[in-house]
Design a protein that fits this description.
By secondary structure, the protein is of the alpha/beta class. It is built from ten helices and nine strands. Strand 7, helix 9 and strand 8 form a beta-alpha-beta unit. The model has no long low-confidence stretch (mean pLDDT about 95).
Length: about 250
């Protein structure tokens, strides 16, 4: 841990990428595991074609999914807070996340690159305006479906990548640029099994970056990582931040 902290302190550019393991530590169920969210819900109900053809039904199902997956008491955990602390201290230059819960921003990270979108927000399909999702979900639960924009009256959409949609190009380009510039690349809570995000730390490693992995299970990058911690992110990341900032 001390050596990994030293590598971060000595680096010009440090980038972190987080996966589902950082969200599950806040009580959010995994989506892709055998007993995850998609074992209870039909993914086709959240396909972009269903949103376009039946926005009212889509939003009713979306509200039910959000209530079960995220609830009202989901808060950032110690891993989110450790990364925000490193960023505030100038020791973390970029944060990429595969998660859609918005907890990095809630913890204080200023501009995380959410490659799969941010479910804590909605976006207008007409004017593109973004806003907080909670009031919109309340409207849906009260029977206002589909929710529409107060500015242009077009249908609102969760600001996430739905099935059948491409990942946002701007976010991918930013994530790629961060990978190419990294001297240290920290992977936390990701199995590195979902592309294209899984290729980002490989890009960093190919460019000579020191790779640090924190995950409960081995990853496809573990054999290339200079530091491979098989640990709970809520334990290891605060320890790592403490060592960096000591």
């Amino acid at each position: 841990m001390e050596f990994a902290a030293g590598a971060i302190r000595d680096a010009d550019t440090v980038v972190a990428m987080t996966g589902a393991g950082v969200s599950t530590a806040s009580g959010i169920p995994d989506f892709r595991s055998a007993d995850g969210i998609w074992s209870e819900y039909d993914p086709e109900a959240f396909h972009v074609s269903r949103f376009r053809e039946d926005p009212a039904g889509f939003w009713r199902d979306r509200a039910a999914l959000v209530a079960e997956a995220f609830g009202d008491d989901v808060e950032p955990n110690a891993a989110h807070e450790a990364l925000a602390q490193l960023e505030a201290a100038g020791e973390l230059d970029g944060l990429v996340t595969q998660n859609v819960d918005g907890l990095h921003r809630a913890a204080g990270s200023e501009d995380p690159v959410a490659v799969h979108g941010d479910g804590s927000r909605v976006v207008c399909t007409g004017c593109g305006r973004r806003r907080d999702a909670d009031p919109v979900l309340e409207r849906v639960r009260d029977g206002t479906v589909p929710p529409t924009c107060g500015r242009c009256d077009e249908v609102l959409k969760p600001d996430v990548v739905l099935f059948g949609e491409r990942l946002p190009e701007r976010a991918l380009l930013r994530a790629q640029a961060l990978s190419e510039s990294a001297d240290v690349y920290l992977v936390a809570g990701s199995s590195l099994s979902v592309e294209p995000a899984a290729s980002l730390p490989r890009t960093a490693a190919d460019g000579g970056a020191t790779v640090v992995v924190v995950n409960l299970e081995p990853t496809p990058l573990s054999d290339r990582a200079e530091y491979d911690f098989r640990a709970d992110v809520t334990d290891a990341l605060p320890r790592l931040a403490e060592a960096v900032l000591a």
